[in-house]
User: Fold this.
Amino acid sequence: MKRIIYTTYIIIISTITLVAQRPPAISSPDVHSDHSITFRYFSRNAKSVTLSGEFLSAPVALTKDTSGIWSVTVPPVKPDIYPYSFWVDSVQIADPNNAYIFANERFKRSIVDVPGDQPLIHSLQNVPHGKVSYRYYKSATLGTTRPLLIYTPPGFNANGKTKYPVLYLIHGGSDTEETWTKVGRANLIVDNLIAQGKAKPMIIVMPYGNVRPSPMPDFTKDVINDIIPFVEANYPVHKDSKHRAVAGFSVGGGQTLNIGLTNTDKFAYVCSYAPFTATDEFRQNFTNWTPNAKAMNKQLKLFTISVGTDDFLYESVQQNIAMFQEKKIKLKPLIVSGGHTWMNCKLFLANSLQQLFK
Amino acid sequence: MKRIIYTTYIIIISTITLVAQRPPAISSPDVHSDHSITFRYFSRNAKSVTLSGEFLSAPVALTKDTSGIWSVTVPPVKPDIYPYSFWVDSVQIADPNNAYIFANERFKRSIVDVPGDQPLIHSLQNVPHGKVSYRYYKSATLGTTRPLLIYTPPGFNANGKTKYPVLYLIHGGSDTEETWTKVGRANLIVDNLIAQGKAKPMIIVMPYGNVRPSPMPDFTKDVINDIIPFVEANYPVHKDSKHRAVAGFSVGGGQTLNIGLTNTDKFAYVCSYAPFTATDEFRQNFTNWTPNAKAMNKQLKLFTISVGTDDFLYESVQQNIAMFQEKKIKLKPLIVSGGHTWMNCKLFLANSLQQLFK
Assistant:
């Protein structure tokens, strides 16, 4: 009986398909239990379809069957969440059959989640879950209403007596306020670490960090003058530097250094991931910089810079680490393998979360 | 000085672009003050690029300049939010430079927001804003943890004495739990209507309505046995039928009829938008249906079916309206112009919201 109903359902869906003139429903990606993955794409007219993915060292070709469905199965990959895209002739596209999109303003890629044999730190596990709230705040600095995402931990009570520490977590350039949850799974990582007793319950604020056409220093002002006051007016949070952290990736990693190190009275935790620092703001802040290292090291409970050895910014990040060390600023580098990727972002975040507010 | 910094910023971004081997940053879409829109796409190799959009009666061609940027400006369109896509040779794609994606499992289209000269009902206005929370619940019916979105109105206090009515709002087939907010702007519509005193403050629950590979009747069970109990355990809500509504579009409009009309003890408000009803569940429920119309009409405070005259389901919806009327079920049809679109969804929702819980 179930089978009959299901067959009927398929016929119905096919009917919708015909009416709306959509391509046939195909399943892509299909992640197999051995961690191999099958990707599929429908096109009768394409001359070639290839797959690019951050789990591949080079693109691989899909082959077409007689019904116009192109497919390829890639050998087992290391469990993780990976961005990928198809190249259809000369056109790079997201996988039309995959709802999971890399949140970004400049490209459209899909993401594939390859689960581990044991749950990974970013997996949806059977633990209490926090909430991610989509909100708006008014930025007097930028003269507009802007979006931000706010994670509150399991058991959070907006009107309770418990006060929380806050992590301000910034995406990469051309990413959006959603990238840290949609691609980085920040909410699930912290859910899992809290459940394991490895992270303190905290609020995580994920703002939209791109400021256009204004220059980037405006974002530092926006965080200090608009976002933090909004959070503190609307959430039960501690307001001292020891309960406030800033972290970010790539352009957001550079913003993190600018925001955090010029405001050590406000942030005792500064976690910069693969920072992009070839910016006017960074030069203004850190060229001929003469910090009072002793005072700063007292204020900073954790200052970490993380990067992968294959990151295209690796050399630049190493130079910055050397610069800060030369100025006697206490710094915990985290150097891992891998490139300028969100696979590494998740790892960096999971590492930082276990050191915050302790 | 500002100019110099901005120029520097552009150079930096160009540097990132080169390093990451991305196409040049271009702005698309650009909505002009007269409601005309310029669309742009970069490709040196494409032979043709056309634009399809729900504001167009037929696709229009883009033309290429010497730098490989294709563009077209379409004449002023009626202010609204429209899905669109590019066809690059034979490949349909979302606009790579537009972060606003139509949340869907089967296609990737972008959306363009053409503001009105006066704010539209779905515009981000200077009014108090509710929150949209991304959450997980355990579905015993479906044996898995599933996502849902929950809108709470401005001033909501999870631990306060105020109890709220709840609208369960279901997306169309192949849409996702995000489509009602990302494309339908349900949160902004209700923010605006609450601010104008035209809608009651309410909670809106937006579940993920697709059930695969199981048949659709499972979703009715999931709503009744899993989602409603989750909401009632976690939010201060009224638990009687007069404070509970169900609404949905397309496949979700069919689900709405199945869920609502077989549970009038639980839902006094049933709002079905362009329902797709060629389903086994609908046939089982409503073929040879012999309702006690008098009792049902007493239970239902509002039963509405909405559809556009150009909707591909128009005839089918009219037949269903006739069927319900023949059974003497009191029904408020809302027949408007337009097709099976999210432009109409916003209109239908705005209409219903002003009639709920009054």
